[in-house]
């Protein structure tokens, strides 16, 4: 009689373990995958001039590598791995007009900026006024 009771206990334990394993499998299969979505994109200037260097900063909700583009062309230095949810890249626009800046990390985030022709020569156009040492 004890052999019969032990078989029942073993069978019930096996059924219980199978049910737990099936539940764990279904949770693993139906769990959402990690999203890779940019959540913002900005340039460190209001007036953007051709030939000047700017920083583009993007924010992300994951650590996956991110790509940066200017009018669909990869910006040199891409891809970048975000740190603390952000990635920053140097960008020099080589033509005036509307530029579509974007970042891609699973999905894309775009920002349209207007690049102006330089009005002065040298660093005065690129953000440092002739009296830049006085602060701005």
Topology, element by element:
Blueprint (H helix, E strand, L loop, with lengths): L1 H29 L7 E6 L4 E2 L4 E7 L6 E4 L2 E2 L11 E6 L5 E9 L1 E10 L20
Parallel strand pairs: 2-8
Antiparallel strand pairs: 1-3, 3-6, 4-5, 4-7, 7-8
What's the helix count? 1
**What order do the strands of the largest sheet run in, or round the barrel if closed?**
2-8-7-4-5
The amount of beta strand, in percent, is 25-35%
Indicate the mean pLDDT: 76
CATH superfamily of the largest domain: Immunoglobulins
Structural class label? alpha+beta
Instruction: Report the principal-axis shape.
Output: rod-shaped
Q: Any idea what the radius of gyration is?
A: 28 Å
For the record, the CATH class of the largest domain is Mainly Beta
Question: What is the CATH third-level topology name of the largest domain?
Answer: Immunoglobulin-like
Helix share, percent: 10-25%
Given as residue ranges, the uncertain stretches (5+ residues, pLDDT < 50) are 27-33, 129-136
Protein name: Ig-like domain-containing protein
Organism: Nocardia aurantiaca
Signal peptide: 1-36
Keywords: Signal
Describe the structure.
The chain is rod-shaped. It has two domains: 1-31; 38-124, Immunoglobulins (Immunoglobulin-like, Sandwich), CATH 2.60.40. The N and C termini lie far apart (93 Å). The protein has one helix at 2-30, and strands at 38-43, 48-49, 54-60, 67-70, 73-74, 86-91, 97-105, 107-116. Strands 2-8-7-4-5 form a five-stranded mixed β-sheet, with no helix packed on it. The chain has a three-stranded antiparallel β-sheet with strand order 1-3-6, with no helix packed on it. It is 21% helix and 34% strand. Strand 7 (97-105) and strand 8 (107-116) form a beta hairpin.
């Amino acid at each position: 009689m004890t052999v019969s009771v032990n078989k029942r206990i073993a069978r019930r334990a096996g059924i219980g373990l199978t049910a737990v394993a099936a539940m764990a499998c279904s949770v693993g299969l139906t769990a959402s995958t990690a999203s890779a979505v940019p959540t913002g994109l900005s340039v460190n200037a209001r007036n953007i001039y051709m030939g000047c260097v700017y920083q583009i900063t993007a924010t992300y909700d994951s650590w996956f590598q991110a790509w940066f583009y200017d009018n669909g062309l990869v910006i040199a230095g891409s891809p970048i791995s975000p740190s603390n949810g952000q990635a920053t890249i140097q960008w020099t626009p080589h033509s005036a007009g509307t530029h579509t800046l974007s970042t891609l990390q699973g999905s894309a985030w775009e920002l349209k900026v207007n690049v102006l022709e330089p009005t002065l020569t040298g660093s005065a156009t690129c953000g440092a006024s002739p009296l830049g040492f006085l602060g701005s």
